[in-house]
Amino acid sequence: MDAFLVNISSFPVSVYTVGLGVVVGYWLISLIGLFDLDAFSADAEIDADVSELGGVAGLLTSLGLSGVPITIVISLLMLNGWFACYFISKAVPNFSELFWLLEIVLDLGVIVVSFMVSIFVTAIMIRPLKGMFKKINQEPISRSVIGRTCRVRSSRVDPNFGEAECIFQGASLILKVRSYPNVSFNTDEKIVLVEHIAQDDVFLVVSEKKFSEELK
Question: What is the CATH number of domain 141-215?
Answer without folding.
Answer: 2.40.50.140
